Amino acid sequence: MCGSVVRVTESAPLDVDLALLGGGGAASLLLAALDRHGVRDRRIAIVDPVRRRGQDRTWAFWGHPDTDLDPLLSASWQQVEVATAARRRVLDLTPLRYAMLRSGPVYDRAAEAERRLDATRVVAPADVVRDDGTRVLVRTGDGRSVRADWVLDSRPRPPSRAGRTTWLQHFRGWWLEADRPMFDPARAVLMDFRTPQPPRGVSFGYVLPVSDRFALVEYTEFSPDLLTDAGYDAALAGYRDLLGLDPAGLRVREVENGVIPMTDAPFPARPSARVVRLGTAGGATRPSTGFTFSAMYRQADQVARALADGRPPVPAAAYPRRHRWMDAVALRALDRGGVGGPDFFDRLFDRNPAERVLRFLDGVTTPAEEVAIMNSTRLLPMIAATAGDAAHRVRDRLRPARPALAIPPAVVGDAVGAE
Ligand SMILES: Cc1cc2nc3c(=O)[nH]c(=O)nc-3n(C[C@H](O)[C@H](O)[C@H](O)COP(=O)(O)OP(=O)(O)OC[C@H]3O[C@@H](n4cnc5c(N)ncnc54)[C@H](O)[C@@H]3O)c2cc1C
User: Fold this and answer.
1) Number of C-alpha atoms within 13 angstroms, CB side, residue 121?
2) In the chain, what percentage of residues exceed pLDDT 70?
3) How far apart are CA 262 and CA 265, in angstroms?
4) Residue with the nearest Cα to atom 23 of ligand 1?
5) Measured distance CA(285)–CA(261) in Å, rounded
6) Which is nearest to 105 in space by CA: 57, 63, 141, 145?
7) pLDDT, averaged across the chain
8) What is the CATH number of the domain that holds 302?
9) Number of domains in the chain
10) 46 and 129 share a domain?
């Protein structure tokens, strides 16, 4: 259905204007944006050993309604709950809304864009990428090659050096179908911290209802280590019971697993003159939450606009530098035990309008709003974490960079399953 699939030989590289290495989330959003902005006159190649189709993940994100994504959404909510042992808070997100997007419609739209852009698929892994400053030569694992003016690279990559704090967001979700109404489709549960907390890290459950009988229920941890398979099932069953859902009336329709890096380790967005990294590999994953989608969407739009205007396809940084610093401090405070995770998020939502917190987590608040956010956290542990972070940075400058061994390989790929 999409563009064309070609055979290129070593002696005759495929010449294109743009080569997309990786055809997952970031590339799918980019293809749709190129189509939306009417970029028609570019030769485009997509290099990926896998053609992404169907349901392999569910994206939850917040944003303003009425975007081009609206027709693809499975559900959206104006109200969300944040729960701790002490209270259940209902937040009105106006003017934003929380939304759920299954991957299938995103990949379908990208496939349609790919066809309209007349892009070429190279179904092989990109291997060597050589940038001479004017053009980039990409060699694939099976000996083919593509030569491009610009490479947009979203292949999973480890960070360029180990982080000062390296956590993972890891989770398992069940798509549950109930034999009678069990869910409230008017409201999603954003974070429910009533789950038993791990010795090091934070855990929470959440519920994304599509109807009163169908919902995604997930158990998530922000912590340094993964659980076992049985560990995720036990935690998720425990959360289901905490919600008072009767297992006898429920069927697990699909299972979703994921591991996302949460680290202050750097993911360079511009490794060379004509190579731009997008998606998780380019730093679009917010270290303090693992949320990635909004930054990927924003950057796809920026790249497409730039090309439509005849400018280089280089987006703004996924998050401002000061946000990356604040995330490094927050992660450190959580990791070193100075701040409890449920307390940290509870105070954020208690002392700020929900909309400000969500825009902060997307990296789009003003410095004045960020001061208000910082003031809502516990001062002493944050000061200690700030001092610790500063000392660690000085130490890092004085000694050679450590290689990025701290993130397990599973994180730079995806652990996703569906049953
Ligand atoms: C199960 C799951 C759920 C998630 N849910 C959310 C969410 O709710 N909200 C949110 O904000 N974020 C979420 N994320 C995080 C993030 O949005 C996704 O991981 C997103 O897919 C990242 O997009 P990407 O393009 O960076 O990586 P991917 O989508 O993983 O795409 C990378 C692509 O690179 C390809 N590739 C690998 N090796 C090569 C190679 N050598 N050459 C060429 N191609 C290669 C892969 O085949 C793949 O298609 C989730 C992640 C997972 C795993």
Assistant:
1) 18
2) 90
3) 9
4) 25
5) 7
6) 57
7) 89
8) 3.50.50.60
9) 2
10) yes
**pLDDT reported for residue 11:** 61
CB of residue 266 inside a 6 A radius of ligand 1: no
How would residue 401 be classed by pLDDT, with cut points 50, 70 and 90? Answer: low
Q: Is 60 in the pocket of ligand 1 (CB under 6 A)?
A: yes
Its domain, for residue 402, covers 321-412
For residues 164 and 10, which has the higher predicted lDDT (pLDDT)?
A: 164
Do 358 and 295 fall within a single domain? no
- State whether 407 and 281 are in the same domain: no
Mean pLDDT along residues 2-8:
54
Q: Whose CA is nearest to atom 51 of ligand 1?
A: 258
The predicted structure's pLDDT at residue 411: 41
Q: Per-residue pLDDT averaged across 151-176, rounded?
A: 94
Q: Measured from the CB, is residue 295 less than 6 Å from ligand 1?
A: no
Same domain, 284 and 386: no
Distance between CA atoms of residues 395 and 389, nearest Å: 10
Residue 28 lies in a domain: yes
Contacts of 48 (CB under 8 A, 6+ apart): 20, 21, 22, 23, 24, 27, 121, 122, 123, 125
Residue 359 counted as domain residue: yes
Are 138 and 9 part of one and the same domain? Answer: yes
**Is position 89 within any domain?**
no
Mutation choice for ligand 1 from 61, 76, 280, CB with most ligand atoms inside 8 A = 280
* CA torsion through residues 327, 203, 359, 71, sign: positive
pLDDT tens by residue, 320-334:
888 888 888 888 888
Q: Is 287 in the pocket of ligand 1 (CB under 6 A)?
A: no
Given pLDDT bands bounded at 50, 70 and 90, which one contains residue 7?
low
Query: Tell me, what DSSP letter sits at residue 133?
Result: S
**What DSSP assignment string belongs to 191-223?**
EETTSPPPSSSEEEEEEEEEETTEEEEEEEEEE
115 domain residue, yes or no: yes
Are the beta carbons of 334 and 74 closer than 8 angstroms?
Answer: no
Residue type, 384: A
* Cross-strand bridge partners of residue 255: 174
**Is pLDDT of 407 > 80?**
no
Cα(125)–Cα(120) distance, integer angstroms:
14
Does 387 lie in the same domain as 342?
yes
For ligand 1, is residue 61 a contact (CB within 6 Å)?
yes
What angle do the packed helices 354-361 and 341-351 form, to 10 degrees? 120
pTM (predicted TM-score): 0.90
For residue range 205-256, list pLDDT tens digits in order: 999 999 999 999 999 999 999 999 999 999 999 999 999 999 999 999 999 9
